[in-house]
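Q&A log
Question type: sequence-to-structure
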Amino acid sequence: MIEENLDDGYWIETFQLDDQTPVGFVAFGLGRGELKVYPNPYTNTEKTKPFQIQKLITPNGMTQADISGDGFQDIVACFDYGNTIIDFNPNGGYIVWLENPGKKNSTEPWKRHYVGRSATMHRLKIGHFTQTKRWEIIGLPIVNGPFDVPVPVLLCGQPDNLLNATAWDCETIDEEFFHLIHDATMFKVDSLDQLLIASREGLSWLYYNENSREWIIEKIADGEQEEKQQTNYYGSGGVAIGKVGSDTFAYIAAIEPFHGNVISVYTKTANNSLTQVQWQRHVLDVYGHPNENGEGTAHYVVCADFDKDGDDEFLVALRGPTPYEGVFYYKPIDLSRGLFAKWQISDVSAARIALADFDNDSFIDFATVGYYVLGYYLANNPSINVFYNRLGSKTLEVKNKLQVTKQNDELLFSVPRPNQILQYHVLPFLTIGNITLSLEVLPPYSSRQVGKNTYIKVLWGIITWKDSSNKSQQPMNHSRTFLCKPKNVCSLEIHSDDNRIKTGSEGAIFIVLQLPKDTYDIPRFNDIKKVMIENSLPESYPEEARKVGFKFIKVDELEWGKEKFKGLEFYNMRGFDIKFADNNEHLCYIQLWAAGKGTNAGVHNHNTDRFCEVHACIVNGNGNSGMHYLKSSADPYDPLTTSDDEFVKLVVPSFHEHGPLWDINARKEPVLREDGTVVYPWHKWQSGGNNSSESLCSEIPSARSLAIDGSKAQATNKSMLKTKPQRRRCASASQQSYDVWIAFEFNPNLSTLPE
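Response status: OK
Response body:
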């Protein structure tokens, strides 16, 4: 901590007085208006105090450049803003540049040079926007009266007599397009600087076309629109550009809307260009709800390569109040799916962030200033803090804690126990249709954003959330474990008031099934062979694992099923094994199944199997498909005499799972036979739909007996293979619709029912 108990706080920016002085920063607030230079906090062993270089009325933005050309960075600042965007000074909005005196060690205020003026001037960028010989400043006011009145954008050019000029040559380059501009980021294309602006319009690209000699504005994205009716704020409020590999425009990180609570990233379909691409928005987080003024907690976003892996991460500054206060670090995992790992690296109020290698170890550090602005938000104990980057001595956990390898043409996942990690881990591994499956580990007392079309199957631990979408409209606490109530069905969907799930003392492991956010209907599969299936492991994982191919294999194409199951519309996809990394303890085995209309997926009771199996239905293609089971494990089954009416019918809708069917003792443990196998009643998956077609289906053996090769083949129920198949009528190809479900085969030693 550099300073605490401030009574003013808004701006902080990296600044170096001269090329001999270690880099420090400038900080100020709107209240006192004291622009102070802080020496490098790491090398300042003599505890030199910050010194004031100027005092301005409500300063609210700055930029910097060597304007005078003497080798020292000068500062451009805007001030006399007023109190708020509602109560602003219509005669204010001054722009000045402050001349750095260099090594004169003067205690006098830096000399002010007037540039220009426009009411509510809020953000400044200095560069070369139309030519490269002289400095140009673009000034971005925030409002121009009511929110529906356009904001004028100023361009001020460096005058001939720089040090004695009464003003710069300023012109309005646009006064029709922009409203409520909060921030912008600058980048260079060829020799000229250009801007990406966050405003009520969303994200917009502003640049000068040298050929047509005119200013161009291109809309990139609309930003946040869902809060429009609630808060009257929409669009974007903060913006930063992220580089990944050689792609300098790999993604755009945004805070949305003005003073927003939504963190979004935008990814594109082609590299190194802002034009002629489709930008896809991914909402990563929603930090709480807007306050009584319609404002959220996020205020600033910045990108940089903090871990030196060649890819930019980004930081988000949250002003508060708690728990949405501090700085969060986001690291890209898979841009094509908008997947980022995230963790909190500061819990003190942050209005803005200054980046620099303060301790000269080649890793980027950062400094923050607390937010303390009357009329907006007053942080408790606002302070200035520096945070040193130690990623060089400790590799990010997200890169090495969740591992996957190829094993017998399947994938073996090695996962950490959630209570032994500090960071959230996510690993997409399979896409079926347009549904992406990812394996995720969330540490204790952590949370994960849950957006639209997100479904979660818990494998270990407990997740919780609050939901007010009930008849009483009162918040209700919900929780989910790896098993729902025995012989019942529960949804994989989450309805959370704050769009988040949370963990307790043990953390959680779960599978996330994610549909595209713009999808409104659950997919339907009419031809299982045409369903797109792909390995979705990120490029950072072993090539051998990424090359493992997945497809549904028809039973009669398997060696053990050629004779018995010819023509049956029943398919299997080989599986995924999950073990704990610390002691190789088995957690569960996962495989997928698909069946056409009217398919009886084989009556069985797992009398040779040592696992506790539940199913999660991805797509119930026939509406009334599900598990059918006899009431008791003591009830006998004879394929010739036991009728369908004796089975209890448990429909499992799309994105639902069923609870345990196995026997459970008084200690809530699975009942085991003497040989360690688990006791079940006879049961089957039965596909629904009509039986009007003339084509025939056969009854098939147990789900586990369909495991294909190796040790899993030994689990085959041989007595079922010897049973003469029953003949059932099935739908023709033109009428076909498939159920697709996942079998989760849990370690019985870890399958005690939660309290």
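Response note: Helices lie at 228-231, 543-546, 710-713, 718-722.
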